[in-house]
Amino acid sequence: MDVSGIKSWIAMELVSPLAFTYAFLHSPLSLANFGNSPALSLSNPPTFLAGLYLIHYLNRSLISPLRTPSRSKSHIAVPTLAVSFNLINGALMGTYLSSPLAERFLTGAFSRPLFWVGVGLWALGFAGNIIHDEILLNIRRKAKAKGKAKVQADDNNGKNKQEHYAVPHGWLYDLISYPNYFCEWIEWLGFALAASPLPSLASFGSFLTTVTPPYLFFCSEVFLMLPRAYKGHKWYQSRFPDYPAERKVVVPFVF
């Protein structure tokens, strides 16, 4: 069964900030349960980082989809799986940032250079995501403005209505096919650097025992998006014979 692309996107993405907010304020590990409720002020590092998380999802769940002229319908399985992921991730991130572990690590964070390096990477990735999404939105807007008559004619002739696709250009699109994915990785890597100690890389077992939700989120983003980016890159190459040969998949100059 197919569902509305825009409505299903909003519904599945709103799950994350709602789960995050509830866990941040009410999770069993929250400092509130130890008689030390975190101050809901930007002068408190965990709350500052919580604000960055919510800013991202305000754009992702509401601002961006509501500005999208059109989005292809999606099979019900896609938003269902996304709801599950966002529910778990939001709850884990909110629980971590309100926990004694995060409180200890983030004590004095505003005076540490690495914290601001991480925040800077988050801001750079967030801005890059918006810029490259805007390029895609402009393609859809132009197609909608110029293609209404053609779509109607195709429908009258019995042809299937399809979304408009074109080769995007500008900024990192001149280097890679999926700069929005790459920018999101930069964003969440920066968030993890600011919010959490680095996990141990001595072995896979030690990594599993030391990884925290911010790094787990970053790793899961790369794991889930990388195959989609590769598949999409190949699709672009097959659909557009003049697709730029020098354009990489998702990491500039590398892959």
TrEMBL record:
Q: Name one GO cellular component term.
A: membrane
Q: Name one GO molecular function term.
A: oxidoreductase activity, acting on the CH-CH group of donors
Pfam families reported in the protein's UniProt record = Steroid_dh (PF02544)
What's the protein name? 3-oxo-5-alpha-steroid 4-dehydrogenase C-terminal domain-containing protein
Tell whether Transmembrane helix is among the UniProt keywords. Answer: yes
Q: Which species does the entry assign this protein to?
A: Hermanssonia centrifuga
This protein's source sits in the domain of life called: Eukaryota
One GO biological process this protein is involved in is:
lipid metabolic process
Subcellular compartments: Membrane
Q: What is the lineage of its organism?
A: Eukaryota, Fungi, Dikarya, Basidiomycota, Agaricomycotina
